[in-house]
Design brief:
With about 525 residues, this protein is α+β, with helices and mostly antiparallel strands. It has 8 helices and 21 strands. The chain is globular, with a radius of gyration of 22 Å.
């Protein structure tokens, strides 16, 4: 991991200490220091060591932030009096094969495997939170708004309590745009229009737009109806053998010979374990995190969430057909081995690819991840549940000159969201965050069980990383990354602020000598 993000011309901004239960309308947000793998948000420092910084981050342009609100609602009762309910659902979202493939501009033609929406609904007796995940490339801001409106109305819950994540499979459509205005002049993302016109008025695509909304509502209603009292457990296991950082650190100087051309995954001699040209490895989050929900009654499996950071491109671009790529068979295999619905949540994988390509690699990965998940489940530990908390912030991320011209605006709105239950926090970032962003947020989080997702609730500035990534250049920080170097730190800072606010407002634990309250209707989750 790099040990700095800089600017040399400006100094770190720091804000006064937060008061418990809230913060007092600061002029700017608390500055973040980069100590190698450490960050510091306000008064909360990350765990673990690190080197002293070689530079300091400048004042983030917080004047562009248009809103921060933390919808924090917590029951006063202690966790011992509290039962969390959870249910899961699934529905098909596969489009007709006449829909055009955004990679080729031609109809998909065939279905290799079907696409799904999965839903997990949590209910603490006073409020609900829902997580939906799609086998799609992305979650557009417009689709987010329409789904939140429809699912919120169907379940009687605030739309802001709904999180939507995409697996980022490249063998499926981009999320449809139901209404313009969320991204300035840009309606459909430029990737979706490289080889074809917009499909919004194309009858097969219009039917799919309606199907996606209806299926999302159906999955959420199924999950809500199936909710039962549950326990929560978490396990983790390393899966680095399936991962490859596609942005190795090329040496700036010191090579006596000009390095040969670098081989990529398409070459017969490609070996993901070998770096060429004197390069060093980029950062890699080796974690598969597994969250298990089991019914209190009979201890039966209800659902599991598994999250890791890896592009869903095992069969892209060779396969022209519709497919969920490796997350599809992996989810089905985990569901068969662990029981209940298995929901894959994509992490911060802007620079992380699968180690191999092809249908054989998909099968290997699905079986390998399922076997690893079984081990993680065997060594999982139960978490102490608590009333649900939800926090959100909307930022205005500054755009590059090229993106300003494309969108007709200086900034684009981007949402950061967190859903918290006791020690478990699930953070959702928009666009394609590089893996360091997720690692930085997790390391600094006050919640010991923190998952950080990308591809959630909107596209933001698409690819986004720490400032030093811009200086290194490459595809991810060129046209593919519409934001300036400040955008990464802004997202990290916003996530840290939300998590610290939720942590300060969390339900306090019962004193050890307090009398226990017997459950009246449902058994406790101990």
């Amino acid at each position: 991991m790099e040990n700095q993000w800089t600017t040399d011309k400006t100094k770190c901004s720091r804000h006064a200490a937060n008061e418990a239960g809230g913060w007092r309308a600061p002029r700017g947000w608390a500055g973040a220091r980069w100590y190698g793998p450490r960050l510091k948000f306000g008064n909360h420092a990350s765990r673990g060591g690190g080197t002293r910084p070689t530079g300091r981050i400048g004042r983030a342009p917080w004047s562009v932030i248009v809103g921060l609100w933390a919808a924090i609602v917590a029951l006063p009762a202690a966790a011992a009096d509290f039962v969390l309910q959870a249910g899961a659902g699934r529905a098909d979202i596969t489009p007709e094969t006449e829909v055009l493939n955004w990679v080729t501009g031609k109809p998909y033609g065939e279905i290799l495997d079907r696409l799904s929406v999965h839903a997990l609904v949590l209910n603490d007796g006073e409020k609900k939170a829902a997580i939906l995940r799609w086998d799609l490339v992305d979650v557009s801001e417009s689709a987010r708004d329409e789904v939140r409106k429809a699912v919120g109305a169907a379940l009687g819950m605030p739309g802001g309590n709904i999180m939507i994540n995409a697996s980022h499979t490249h063998s499926a459509p981009w999320a449809p745009v139901y209404a313009g205005g969320t991204r300035g002049l840009e309606r459909d993302t430029w990737w979706a229009l490289r080889y074809m016109p917009a499909q919004n008025e194309f009858p097969p695509f219009k039917r799919w737009m309606e199907k996606l909304l209806a299926a999302s509502v159906a999955a959420a209603k199924q999950a809500d109806a199936a909710a039962v009292p549950v326990t929560i457990a978490i396990g983790r296991i390393a899966v680095s053998e399936y991962l490859h950082n596609r942005r190795p650190r090329t040496p700036a100087w010191g090579l006596a010979d000009k390095p040969p051309g670098v081989l990529n995954f398409a070459h017969a001699d490609w070996n993901p374990e070998v770096l060429q040209g004197g390069a060093s490895f980029g950062p890699l989050d080796r974690t598969l995190a597994l969250v298990l929900f089991r019914a209190v009654e009979q201890d039966r499996p209800v659902a599991n969430l598994f999250s890791m950071a890896c592009h869903a491109v095992s069969i892209y671009p060779a396969n022209p057909w519709i497919s969920a790529d490796w997350p599809g068979p992996a989810s089905r295999t985990l569901s068969a081995t662990l029981g209940g619905e298995s929901l894959f949540l994509q992490g911060c994988t802007g620079d992380i690819n699968p180690w191999r390509r092809g249908e054989a690699a998909v099968a290997t990965m699905a079986g390998g991840l399922a076997a690893k998940a079984q081990v993680a489940a065997r060594y999982s530990v139960k978490l102490a549940p608590a009333p649900l908390q939800v926090g959100q912030a909307t930022l205005q991320l500054p755009l590059t000159p090229a993106a300003k011209q494309r969108l007709g605006a200086d900034t684009v709105a981007a949402e950061v969201q967190a859903i918290v239950c006791g020690p478990l926090a699930i953070v959702a970032l928009p666009g394609e965050p590089l893996t360091e962003l997720g690692m930085a947020i997790r390391e600094a989080s006050p919640f010991p069980q923190t998952l950080v997702l990308g591809y959630s609730n909107g596209n933001g500035v698409h690819y986004v990383g720490m400032p030093h990534e811009k200086a290194r250049g490459g595809y991810e920080v060129g046209q593919a990354g519409a934001g300036t170097a400040e955008c990464g730190p802004m997202l990290v800072e916003a996530a840290g602020r939300i998590l610290n606010e939720l942590f300060a407002a969390r339900p306090k634990e019962r004193p050890k000598d307090a009398p226990k309250v017997a459950p009246k209707e449902a058994p406790t989750t101990k």
